[in-house]
Amino acid sequence: MSILVVGSVAFDSVETPFGQVEEILGGSGTYFSTSASFFTDVSLVAVVGEDFPEEHLDFLRSRSIDLGGVKKAPGRTFRWKGRYGYDLNEAHTLDTQLNVFETFKPELPAGYEDAEYVFLANIDPELQFEVLQQVRRPAMIACDTMNFWIEGKRAELLKTLRKVDTLLINEGEARQLAGEANLVKAARSILAMGPRTLVVKRGEYGVLMFTEHSTFAAPAFPLESVYDPTGAGDTFAGGFVGYLAATRNHSEANVRKAIVFGSVMASFTVEDFSLNRLRSLESKEIENRFQKVKLLTEFEGIG
User: Fold this and answer.
1) What CA–CA distance (Å, rounded) separates 182 from 179?
2) Which end of the chain is more exposed for a tag (fewer CB within 10 A), N or C?
3) How far, in Å, CA of 114 to CA of 90, rounded?
4) Measured between alpha carbons, how far is 35 from 29 in angstroms, rounded to an integer?
5) What separation in angstroms does the CA of 75 have from each of 22, 90, 99, 100?
6) Strand 65-73 with 19-26, pairing
7) Long-range contact set of residues 149-152: C-beta below 8 Å, sequence gap at least 24
């Protein structure tokens, strides 16, 4: 197997200036695994409730995602409700119902412990650490977190970060984690916590990557129609880790290329609600948009 992802599978209710939807397919594990499946094999560990429709599982299977680690538990599936204003970089949470996700304990099925790439989606850092105790010798461990865990379980999060190769968080989370207003200083502080690479997701403003010796910036692809940014960060992570897993090349140049592929995947997600755009996406569209993003920052030999 190539990538193991541990995260949530959920129902989302989303309101943006461009529409409103109720109880659509969502969750960090869902967005990540769907995005990564365009590049390589993915195995998902998550929990759903008895109310979770088989058609959603069929969609994930249609992407050749291994669902051997998805358990159906008594109770209702995790639900999130949020609203976005015209600043689509910020979600306002209206309601969160953890339901079966509240007692979720990730247990890896046989064979999953041999995963070469591991992505720990935004879940309790104690659970993230439990997953790391079950895997053997992955080539890369990447993880996400959020302000809730940074504030409420900082010690547990720092314990997990000492075992992580790449941390993917947004700009506000980076500043909060480091206790630094300046993003460059914040990055230096976070890298000292353990990760060798920090990827800062900045929504429509693109992505920044920091390592001990380098900094890289990639733009977001400019879009005429943005309907729903929910899951864009997890879709980015899926493209990023998916490309690295497919190429098995961790060179500086290839990591930068993976960041651009992550940005490309996120740009498709925001063009519609839920995973609707990814359902119809074709590989040739991904490659075409990748080439367009490259042209956004090309300046030598022009003019």
Assistant:
1) 9
2) C
3) 37
4) 10
5) 19, 30, 7, 6
6) unpaired
7) 149/122, 149/124, 149/125, 150/176, 150/177, 151/176
Query: Please, are residues 142 and 168 in contact by the beta-carbon 8 Å criterion?
Result: yes
Q: How confident is the model at residue 86 (pLDDT cuts 50, 70, 90)?
A: confident
Q: Count other C-beta atoms under 10 Å from residue 234's C-beta.
A: 32
CATH number of the structural domain 3-296: 3.40.1190.20
23 sits in the region (left: phi over 0; alpha: psi -120 to 50; else beta) called left
> In residues, how long is the chain?
303
Q: Identify the CA nearest to 91 among candidates 241, 234, 225, 268.
A: 234
> What is the domain partition of the chain in residue ranges?
3-296
The structure tokens listed for 9 are 């599978």
User: What is the per-residue pLDDT across 91-100, written as a single tens digit (0 to 9) for each?
Assistant: 889 999 999 9
232 neighbors 223 (Cβ within 8 angstroms): no
Instruction: Write down the residue that tokens 């992955």 correspond to.
Output: 138
Q: Global pTM?
A: 0.95
Rounded distance between C-alpha atoms, residue 42 and residue 44, angstroms: 7
